[in-house]
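Let's sit down with a protein and look at its sequence and fold side by side. Go ahead whenever you are ready, and we will take it from there.
>
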Amino acid sequence: MMRYDSDDAPPPPVSTAGPTTVPAEDARPASVTAGGLAREIFIDFPKRAYEYLAGTTPRDAALKMETAKTPDTRREGLTELAERPFGRGAPYTERYQQIGRFDDDANVRAAALRALNRSRDGVAKPLFVESLKDASPRVRLEAAKALANVPDSAAVPSLLAIANNPAEPADNRIAAVDALRHHRSLENARALINLLTERDFGIAWQARQSLRAMTGADRFYSQSAWLELLSGSENPLS
């Protein structure tokens, strides 16, 4: 019997009521075609053997994510599971949401949000929005980056707050400005125009890119030109 230790052989479903079910033994039938047999011998088996010896099988990842006492090990296990195609869908994403909301370590919560972002999990939108107010800058960063890929209008007030807060890390502000491109309104566009003169060029550059995405136009870094566009008869947001 072979173990569950390759991308095409996901572990059993995660229990969303408690810890992840540790992957069990593989009961797949043997390949019957010549091509399937060749892949098993020259690709799949060496890969599984290496992962088994290196301790990086899905079973190992699940054990680390669920049973490790150290946050770094839990984070590593979660990240390793999310690397697998099956680890970027339900029910694994349901477990990542639980971890992202309740783990007491900010780095683990951030890793969970990153995994959900990579999974493009729309079900996790409320968690992304909620995490914009997390005490950890790293968690707020991952939440803003996720909302750039999985937008939610409920996030706009918090995104604006982050974008306009000079005490917020620059990377967080840039991610928030990026996420705002999805929300086409005069209010949001004016907020982005105000950021075109930021001393941190990364923020100003992203504000321009988001304005371009919103309007389909480009007025570079001229606040007056952007305001003229928005107040004219050809306002693309009207």
